[in-house]
Amino acid sequence: MGMCLEAFVEQRQADGAWVPADKWEPEDGDDPWVPYEKRLVHTYNEWVWGALGGITAGFSPIAQARGLPADVSAHIMAHEGLVDEHTFHSWLTVREIMEYDWTQDVRQWFPSDRRYGPAQPLYAHCTEFLAQTLPRLWRLGRAPWDDVRIVFWFDV
In a designed cystine with 145, which of 95, 102, 104, 134 is the match (CB 3.0 to 4.6 A)? Predict the structure, then answer.
């Protein structure tokens, strides 16, 4: 059984309201949607999601699950299938992601050999996210980057 992952980016406006940063599009007469390849955060890297959400990780995540933010944007709140008893929701600001210790050592499990590989820094497993996705998110906000956040959930 697989895991469904959804992640969307929001920006805080001057009035304090959060709005989607991803570009939502109508989909065949249905509610608006953001195609996966056009999302600001589009990764299925288990190391990245281990750090962001603690899913399938053998190390501490940035933060424990928080649920949806109370002030989540209407686009995300209206998302079909958002609330389910098997769904894990959370969110993080770009500042929190930047302050995380990406240099901590992690070890990969090799089930076929029933052993762990050598310790490596976490960033070695997350280079695309750290080198491409995170800079895209920086450009949406301004220091200290509390005005940009990722809202995400896993259906496990």
Answer: 95
The residues near 110 (Cβ < 8 Å, ≥ 6 apart) are 116, 117
Ranges of the chain with pLDDT below 50: 1
CA 83 vs CA 20, 67, 76, 88: distances in Å: 19, 10, 11, 9
Q: Are the C-beta atoms of 38 and 32 separated by less than 8 Å? A: no
- Residues 149/63, Cβ–Cβ less than 8 Å: no
Count of helices and strands (H, E) across the chain:
5, 10
* Phi, psi torsion values for 75, nearest 5 degrees: -60, -45
Q: Are 57 and 64 in contact (CB under 8 A)?
A: no
Query: What is the value of pTM for the model shown?
Result: 0.86
Distance, CA of 3 to CA of 31 (rounded, Å): 23
Q: How is the chain split into domains, by residue range?
A: 4-155
State the Cα–Cα distance between residues 77 and 69, nearest whole angstrom. Answer: 10
